[in-house]
Records
---
Amino acid sequence: MSIPSTRIIRTATGAVACVAAVVAIVMGIVAFQDWQLRRQIASGTPYEPLGPDNPPSAASFHPGRAVEEMPPITEIEIVSAEEVGGRIEDDELVIGVAIDGEARAYPLNVLTGPEREIFNDHLAGRPIAATW
Amino acid sequence: MYARSVKGQTLHFAVSGLLWEMSLVMIDRETRSLWSHLLGEAMRGPLQGEQLATVPSIMTDWQTWRTRYPGTTAAVMPRTTQDYRRDLHLEGSGFVIGLAGNGQSRAWRFTELRLHRVVNDRFAGQAVVVIFDDTSGTAVIHGRTVDDRELTFRWNEGRLIDRETGSEWDPITATALSGPMKGKELLRQDGVVSLDQAWMIFHPESTLWQPPPSPREEPPTT
């Protein structure tokens, strides 16, 4: 690039202006690449899609951010089947677990959504996570 | 359904807010490791490489669960959606139930299970039976070896029967209700209900059950 010209660089302010311009350009490039990266990450697109040639592994793990991190759910209202009433309807899908004679159901319609998804619970003394 | 104990430590899992190929990535409060929900494996962080133990579970409708397990409790919370009902499994497309372990995996499509309703199959050297209950839309997988004896199952007028002894079995509780096997239990398998696409992405090596040409009973695969 031919800078017009040596006349500008001769002066001190000119030199500063020139450096500032270069820095601005470099920062602009960096900002643009950063923006591209952010957009790629925000779209959830991994650097290379999983497939038969790229099986899931720690190496191919490239998550994208969809929402903010949620706090773990540790307090869940647990009731007996008799107390459920209309809160779970007969045709609603549940994840049912039975351990050592204890049984519990987790409805999918309450497990859905980024603020739900994982319930930290205990059943028959065992710490379990109901996930959806 | 995962066990939360890893190497003697009980972890508390949260939604990390990250997605990997549209699949939930979990984070544990204790070490802040990142876990793939579908694989049950820590992909990043101090616990990278650790695998969560699964707890066998069934995806069924509330009516079926509470009638089979009258003493059951339930988690109650305001609904975030109304969508997940048995009709989804009875009529919806794209669902599979799958087994994965030791680097192997296999899946059975709901669209085919609805037609065939019982598949006597094998996975990772073990005899398994994949059952579809068409009143509740429940797909479930159990081991079909009892006391070193491999059983083969069929539906007969709404009852699940093993050919070898003629005993009737409840597919939900995996228990024999009558006949010579009464009281015996099949070993529950960790059948995971998933969308077809999600399963194939995370288990690219997965085999897929191919139904026989006729919708009638097929001989067990060797």
Note: The radius of gyration of chain A is 28 Å.
---
Amino acid sequence: MILKLLPLVLFLALAGFLAKGLTLDPGELPSALIDKPAPAFELPTFAPEGEPFKPEDMVGKVWLLNVWASWCGPCIQEHPIITDLAETGVVPVVGLNYKDGANESTAWLNRFGNPFEAVLADREGRVGIDWGVYGVPETFIIDKAGRVRYKHVGPLSQEDVEQTLQPIIDELLDVPS
Amino acid sequence: MIRASSHAYFCLQWVCGAAFLMLLCVSAGQRVHAAEQLVSFDTPEQEALYKSLLVEYRCLKCQNQNLAGSNADLAADLKREIHLQVLDGKTKPDIDEYLVSRYGEFVLYRPRFNTVTALLWIGPFLLLAGGIVGIVVMARRNARRRAAEESQGGVAAGALHDGSISSAELERAKKLLE
């Protein structure tokens, strides 16, 4: 009896996998950096210009790195959500301006608002490569020990922030410094 | 009449000239594009390594293309980085590791064999083995079942498929035909 049910069971299992697959994006790459130390770098800051930024400056804090560019459409879409998140003051959001011109990016910030604790100029995209950036926008969550804990590919929606990012951030904030 | 035709002839010349100029521009553009891809190396081995590497890595933006074939910005950046590393004397395993530590095993068209990718490499063979075992088990079970039926008279599960007819079946057939 059990053996007769086997093809049905196998079919249902396969159907389950395929159904789940329909909800996934086949082009999305999981980050190779999860749970690894954030790649070190030093980049100049602008808007406003200040001291060069290094990730090790943020050790002891939970923070977000938002990769954006003025030539990126979806970045405009997610910017209000990033702004809201930054304005709650729960986590600092550092902006990595990826392969962008100084004038264009400054104009973009003037137009859409600048919620970033620091805006980093990754003009050549070399820091982006070290972080495994393959498109814009992307957002990383880094913990107090300076390890990358989560990467979000694509624009953030309110839902993403509430249901995915916020729980992770809360969990990481609870960890003693 | 003569003025009209010379006007037409002049227009024709103008159009041909413009077309020729456009073709020139297009082909010149292609030459510039080809020039972007010219990279120099210290040794022919380095150049060969570089060329072989470009077809081994996936373009992460246009994921159906390798770095050699992709025009994406990211592909150009990665090509530049690989060029520098090859000039620096790095080997394929070094550059593989560089890319995989940033982008994951997916960047390699031929993934390395390790605990993460073991299932990917061995999986199809495991499934094949499982299928063969399954077939053998079912065939043996069928053969055993048929042998058991034959020794009991054979009617219960239907006629034997070797064309012969058992005595019990013969009796039944006679009864039905009466």
Note: Helices of chain A lie at 2-22, 73-87, 102-112, 126-130, 158-174.
